[in-house]
Design brief:
This protein is an alpha+beta fold. It is about 40% helix and about 15% strand. The chain starts with 5 loop residues before the first helix and ends in an 8-residue tail after the last helix.
Length: about 140
C-alpha cells in the first residue's frame, strides 16, 4: 500500500493497538509511543484524512498563524504565584517566573517538568499541584 484511503478510517474502531500501530508503520514510519488505543485511533484517523486532503487548507493555516502562542498551564496564575503541596512528608513549592517555573534554584519550562523533577517520575504538573480535578 502506498497511501491510505478513507475506507481504512471506517475500520479503525474494530482494531486493537497493535493493528493500529501496524497501519501507522506501513504508511508513516515509526508510530508514536502511545498506549491508549482510543487516542491512537483518533490520531491515525486524523493523519489519514490529512494526507488524503493534503494537510490543512490555506484558511486553517492562516488562522493558526494568527493565533496566539499557547502558554503553559499555570503561567496564567501570574508571575510570583506560588504553588505548593506536601510530597513525601515535606512541603514543596514552585514559583511562577517569567521564564517558566522555579523550584530549588532551577527553572523548568513547564509545570510538568518541575513536578517530574520533584517526584522523580513523570507527572502531569497541573494535576500534581492540584490545578485539575483527579480523574474519576
Amino acid at each position: 500500500m502506498s497511501s491510505p484511503d478513507l475506507e481504512i478510517v471506517e475500520t479503525l474502531d474494530d482494531l486493537d493497538l497493535d493493528a493500529l500501530r501496524n497501519i501507522w508503520q506501513n504508511f508513516y514510519g515509526s508510530p508514536p509511543p502511545l498506549r491508549s488505543p482510543e487516542l491512537f485511533r483518533l490520531m491515525l484517523a486524523w493523519r489519514i484524512q490529512a494526507s488524503i486532503d493534503r494537510g490543512l487548507g490555506p484558511l486553517a493555516r492562516q488562522q493558526l498563524a494568527r493565533a496566539p502562542v499557547p502558554r503553559a498551564e499555570g503561567l496564567s496564575l501570574g508571575i510570583e504565584a506560588k504553588l505548593g503541596r506536601i510530597w513525601k512528608g515535606r512541603l514543596v513549592e514552585v514559583e511562577v517566573v517569567e521564564d517558566g517555573f522555579s523550584h530549588d534554584g532551577e527553572i523548568y519550562n513547564s509545570l510538568s517538568a518541575a513536578a517530574t523533577a520533584i517526584a522523580g517520575t513523570r507527572w502531569n504538573g497541573p494535576r500534581f499541584f492540584g490545578l485539575r480535578e483527579p480523574k474519576a
